[in-house]
Amino acid sequence: MTVMGQEITDYVDRVRAALADLPPEVRDELTEELPEHLAEVAAEGEGTLVDRLGAPEAYAAELRAVAGAQPSRRPARFHRLAEARREAATQLRLLDRQLGPVLGHETVSDFLRPLRPAWWLVRGWLAALIVAWMVDGRSGLVPRLDGNSSTGLLLLIGAIVASMWWGRRSAGITGWRRQLHQIATAALLLFSFAVLAQVDERADTDSYGSYEQTSVDHRYDRIEDVFVYDQQGRLIRDARLFDQNGVPIRLG
User: Fold this and answer.
1) pLDDT value of position 160
2) Which residue, of 101, 118, 152, 182, is most buried by count of CB atoms within 10 Å of its CB?
3) Whole-angstrom Cα distance, residue 202 to residue 10?
4) What is the enclosing helix (H) or strand (E) of 236?
């Protein structure tokens, strides 16, 4: 998308946000030909759309007056919240354009868009980890259900297939469904961080208790071997010693 195209999109979005209290069909009717009109205005001379037409909110007020649509009587805090949301969206779009050249693209969105299938795969894997954690109380990098890796593998495949299917469908959703999708994605990431932190902690614990560790005091450092005998005094060959935690004891 060109800079002019992005400016038109941002202007239309802010106008529609200012008319958000109107019924959807009325808002769509008022802004149906707005992109074409803005493109004509932008092509006629220099200056931004805000400089030539005024703020999008003022333009929306003019459209509202022409249509005879009265603004809603929502509390002022809702208007402040909507304004803060619009400002945040504007700043995110600006940051999107500024960081794009760092990644070799016009916007960061252009860089991330081809990576969506990879995210769908990761999302399915994270969902499988969370399900395994909820069922079994723990999880590894490969999900298991009741210690069964085969069941965990089926869960992983099913989660990835479902994530890919939803990824192809979610591109076209709008309105409250898209907001719900974004909230669910954020919740998935938050829970995934907690599960992955548990996996990392468990991996550190397993590594600390590996075969290479020793569970004896320093006073045994000079002992090179240990001989084990039964009660009848017979030598038990190739015996292995373990401590109370199941860790092999290595001497010398």
Assistant:
1) 92
2) 152
3) 47
4) strand 235-236
